[in-house]
Design a protein that fits this description.
The chain is mostly helical and 172 residues long. It is 84% helix and 0% strand.
């Protein structure tokens, strides 16, 4: 092939090189954008969780939580007679506030708006202590009131944290 026969091919080669460079640049930009989005999401999750944790650490809320952990009862009927809405509305609403807090975290986890690693690292023990204590009451309440959704997100949160804890404990 002579040099003169190659001259008509030069614009096509230059165009092909240009398209290749543009495609490479585009793929690179997509990777960078994806990394920025992931970092932004992680930052937003951390910010959201810090707001949640701030609520947990407020003296009024933490008092409700620790007070609940000190309550004693034999069974569902005893619980209702001591801490139910007619017996002690303040205690009833305190427990409801704590349950609502953990239900909210469970729902946010379910919706993938919070990272389980963060929740596990800072709240696992508290979720475990709360659920271990309230579980028999919740199950009985679900049955008696025919409300299977009572504390469903607390239970979900507890189950997911236990699964995560089992996986991470096995790796240690």
């Amino acid at each position: 092939m002579s040099m003169e026969s190659l001259i008509p091919l030069i614009p096509g080669i230059i165009t092909a090189i240009g398209v290749l460079v543009a495609a490479t640049y585009y793929v690179y930009n997509i990777k960078i954008s994806r990394k920025i989005m992931e970092t932004t999401l992680e930052t937003r999750q951390a910010q959201l969780f810090m707001q949640v944790l701030q609520r947990f650490n407020e003296p009024d809320f933490f008092d409700k939580y620790t007070s609940f952990l000190s309550w004693k009862w034999k069974d569902y009927d005893d619980y209702i007679s001591k801490y139910g809405p007619k017996a002690d509305s303040e205690s009833w609403y305190s427990e409801g506030s704590v349950a609502a807090f953990f239900n909210g975290i469970g729902l946010l986890l379910y919706m993938n708006l919070l990272d389980i690693k963060i929740i596990h690292g800072l709240l696992f023990v508290h979720v475990k202590m709360f659920w271990d204590k309230i579980k028999p009451i919740t199950y009985e309440m679900r049955t008696r009131l025919d409300l299977p959704q009572v504390d469903q997100w607390v239970e979900y949160l507890y189950d997911e944290l236990n699964k995560y804890d089992s996986r991470t404990t096995q790796r240690r």
